[in-house]
């Protein structure tokens, strides 16, 4: 009879542990998924900002006799812009290339309507993402304008402001959902742990009544919490990266390839899983340590 009771208790304990691990894994899977989305959203936000360019123009006055001298001056100016300005990418556009692009945009194949070198050479500058900001764009343009050899700088500031505001709005929504999932992770994992500790409330109180110190009682529960939290986190991470690998293999590799960011995400998910599990275990166990014996039947 005693053996059957022990086997029943072991099965119930095993079932409780499995339930906790699955709960942790599912919650951390969703939390990690939001983390991956946030990382890639930030990357694509920066990518879009880098597509917004500023055009810095050289002097329109051009004399073919001084072409070598002008070419050297423009080359020096191009290097200075890359050094002095907050440039992510800079492209030199010669007079010939500017004329070709103008003809292409107008749909004209003939050279009859164009005089030679009618368009000035320029530099197409993609600013660093942090400078595509209404408060910093003027500073970047001022730096580019101050470079000797640059006579005019043009940009579509209204477009940059609109893109900046829309991207920030999207990132804030994604960040908000990530924080919401973090709160849900805390609540759901805490509830699972509380149910597990609740089933052991009489054991906890019995140990306390026979003289066991609180630290002694807490220790095995904390060790078990660390193990369950780690197992649940690992399962959640394996499922997360399995799904993500399948998704990227179907869509393509146009996602963040920075392994350092993934490494920090793994540490974050693992740390959150273990921390919440241990904290919930301590709080739930401490509650029953402070509860009177009679109250255990009504907890």
The percentage helix is: 55-70%
Number of domains: 2
Uncertain segments of ≥5 residues (pLDDT<50)? Answer: none
Question: Which sheet architecture does the biggest sheet show?
Answer: 4 strands, antiparallel
Membrane topology: Multi-pass membrane protein
Transmembrane segments: 20-39, 170-193, 221-247, 262-289
Protein name: Cell division protein FtsX
Subcellular location: Cell inner membrane; Cell membrane
What would your notes on this structure say?
This protein folds into two domains: 180 residues, no CATH class; 103 residues, 2-Layer Sandwich (Alpha-Beta Plaits), CATH 3.30.70.3040. The mean pLDDT is 77. α1 packs antiparallel against α5, α1 packs across α7 and α1 runs antiparallel to α8. It is an alpha+beta fold. This is Cell division protein FtsX. Keywords: Cell cycle, Cell division, Cell inner membrane, Cell membrane, Membrane, Transmembrane, Transmembrane helix. InterPro entries: ABC3_permease_C, FtsX, FtsX_ECD.
